């Protein structure tokens, strides 16, 4: 059985010191936002007192304009906190899929968006990368005479699925064939094996 040579390392967990500093920043932001909202409330109360004094001197129109500006400054001061959002790319439902063959753990099944399925070797012949994890399918990137291509995203080796999985100028192959004729491909692959 072929064992992949690539070791995986978890990279998405933040270090503890970064997580701690992020929590401190969030606490500081909360304190600043609460002090800003308190200041905004004091400013709005002062503006109301001034409005009452000026109401007797000026007309009602000036009073409404000042209240509107005071309210807008109070709401903008309360909304000065920062927030960040990150969007992930979502796969389309009609996108191609790569799954491990349930009958043979050494092979994968590539399902195109059209529904056509190919069976291929699970590991890249170049560096042994597991194509069920690292494989990418490019259906429309090449002309129709080449067809859909399975690419190993580690070193960007490409294998034409409709050409028997040939790649690397024909020197390497992942033994790809359509699932409906996979039995014929398996027997031809067995014939190519050397008997020692």
TrEMBL record:
Top-level taxon in the UniProt lineage: Eukaryota
Lineage of the species this protein comes from: Eukaryota, Fungi, Fungi incertae sedis, Mucoromycota, Mucoromycotina
InterPro entries on file: Rieske_2Fe-2S (IPR017941), Rieske_2Fe-2S_sf (IPR036922)
Gene Ontology MF annotations: 2 iron, 2 sulfur cluster binding; metal ion binding
Domain Rieske: 84-166
UniProt-listed Pfam families: Rieske
Region (Disordered): 1-102
Keyword Iron-sulfur assigned: yes
Protein name: Rieske domain-containing protein
Chain intervals with Low complexity compositional bias: 70-81
Source species of the chain: Mucor lusitanicus CBS 277.49
